[in-house]
Amino acid sequence: MARRTAPVSDWSQDFDVLDAGYIADPFTFWDQLRQTCPIAHSNRRGSNWLPTRYEDVTAMAHDIEHFSSVEVAVIPFDGEEPEEPLLPYGLPPISVDPPIHTWTRRLLLPWFSHRRVEGYEAMTRDLCRGLIDSFVETGHADAAENYSQQIPVRVIAHILGVTADLSDTFTGWVRDILEFGDDKERNMAAMEGLFTYFVAEIAKRRESPGSDLLSELLQTEVDGAAIEESVVLGMAALVLIAGVDTTWSAIGSSLWHLATHEDDRKRLVAEPELMPLAVEELLRAYSPVTMARLVTSDIEFKGCPMKTGDKLLMNFPAANRDPDVFEDPDRVVLDRQHNRHVAFGSGIHRCAGSNLARMELRVALEEWLERIPEFRLVEGAELTWAGGQVRGPRVLPVVFP
Amino acid sequence: MKIRVDAGKCQGHARCYALVPELFSVDDYGQSSVVGDGTVPAELEERARLAIANCPEYAIEELAD
Question: Rounded to the nearest 5 degrees, what angle is found at the Cα of A309, between the Cα atoms of A47 and B10?
Fold first, then answer.
């Protein structure tokens, strides 16, 4: 994501999460900030605070009284917000506080329970195998575009009960909203496309309900009344937006790690029983997601004078590299024993799809390593990383014998 | 050894269940609880400590004898 941004002179007072050097290697910036100014500030794109210590990030996540979820976008529009939001509650439950958070979240959670996720595993495995079939003979692939990017979007389409034929369109919308969210026109057009699509899908399910998530939400009553359509729409949009780019980025970063760390790749091939711990470790080391919070009243937090309307960038990825909590945090230890990572957040907004994301990451890596145990980056190839709300490789050319 | 899950702290990360399914169960909403009365058989004590050390919400505690 190459953007032209003014150079940063002082990262503690003027950080820029879209700086190209930061996106490529944020880890050294976090190390430095943790030692000098653990909660940095910037006036780029509004007044934003960036915590880098585990203790601070988790404390902020738990303080829902001062830090609201009504504004979770890390990269806001470049320009005025529309006067009327498209949806009154945004994308519940991620964009709301209790009490709406509580009941909307309870409706979603069972769809992503352990039991349900086990049921999605076989189709995920078939999907991965089919993707690998399409390029394995050629000896090379873009592990981001040809593989990682193709998996979560199709699993999510299956859960929502919508056709996977539109996968590329879904992916485009999600990227325009998250990755290019500061481009107002692109962001708004994607939101409109997505909502128009789901409004039509909702109408179809009112006529003939199926057994999918959308149909069930439409038939659910809360306190004796059907759920408002705008809430159903927001929840459906959330499942798509939060379930695609995030997991695909985690799969891509993990494959990048294995393509560039021969010892780890060989170890994981030789000791496949390490996979569950390895998945947690890769999630820790390459946590893709940062969420924002809105400061709801003036408050001094650890000496930082936060004002109403400021934003916090909940830097879960940096928390997971904090040496106070993780021994040798910048090293990937596939069988790390003590790993209290917060890649899926912390507190009441813990990622509702975390069971699903874990399963997809594990299956995607298992299937890849089974068929392509040896692979490496194309020499001299230029990689592209996305950053901001979600960090992960967008172009990842690899070769295999 | 005896353990318990603090239901008020548990947010459903399910790390305990993934590590030691013999000792924990998770409901459809992600809420974790101990199996039985939380007594840990001697051969599972080490793994119980692993579950305690991996909970992102510090929701699992070892009870004093």
Answer: 100
What pLDDT, in 10s, does the model give residues A278-323?
A: 999 999 999 999 999 999 999 999 999 999 999 999 999 999 999 9
Tell me how close the Cα of A79 comes to any Cα of chain B, in angstroms: 36
Question: A324-341, pLDDT tens digit by residue?
Answer: 999 999 999 999 999 999
The C-alpha atoms of residue A383 and residue B9 are separated, in whole angstroms, by: 41
- What superfamily in CATH does domain A11-372+388-399 come from? Cytochrome P450 (1.10.630.10)
Chain A residues with beta carbon closer than 8 angstroms to that of B15? 280
**Cα–Cα distance measured from residue A374 to residue A306, given in angstroms and rounded to the nearest whole number:** 50
CA distance B26 to chain A (A): 8
Do the Cβ atoms of A299 and A306 come closer than 8 Å? Answer: yes
ipTM of the complex: 0.96
- Domain housing B55: 2-63
Q: What is the CATH number of the domain that holds B17?
A: 3.30.70.20
For residue A147, give every residue at least 6 positions away whose Cβ sits within 8 Å of its Cβ, in sequence order, or none: A128, A131, A132, A135, A141, A251, A255, A364, A368
Q: How far is B5 from chain A (nearest CA, A)?
A: 15
Domain ranges of chain A: 11-372+388-399
Number of domains in chain B: 1
Average pLDDT, integer, range A36-48: 95
Q: Quickly count: other Cβ atoms within 10 Å of residue A376's Cβ.
A: 14
d(CA A330, CA A45): 29
Could you say which of A58, A113, A342 has the minimum Cβ distance to residue B28? A113
Nearest Cα residue to A16 out of A52, A43, A56, A37 = A43
The minimal CB distance from A338 to the residues B12, B13, B53 is found for B53
pTM: 0.96
